[in-house]
Amino acid sequence: MHVTNKKSFMVSTVDLRIVGLNSNKTRKTYGSDTVYEVYFELSGTSSLAWKDIFKREWKLTNSAHEVSIDKEFLLMHCPLKEIVIHLPFLKDLVDATNKKYRQYIKEQATDWGHRDGIWEQSRKDIEAVVKSLHFD
Fold this sequence. Notes:
The protein has 3 helices and 5 strands. It is an alpha+beta fold.
């Protein structure tokens, strides 16, 4: 089971990027004349850990705009005219999230390696005891 997790860490280390704006999904927010739900397309679907890191990074910006991750989209609530201003900042934020996510993955892999070492030693200890037992 833990091998699968290691493999998912390896696959998950691909950095995400903002690759476009989905004009079909982007629409005016209900009840507002100026604020839109702007759907920036990501290069892939983010993991739960990546989303959590992104949320933490976004909170540090103290921006008044709402931002979230919706599957393979970064969703921002802002006036249409502000998109051009926010895009470079969002790209930098995604890059920062990728960097922290790679560090997180490295730490998780190290943790799994440590757990594997403990498990292997435990197996050896058990096998040694089993070999010393004599059953009729």
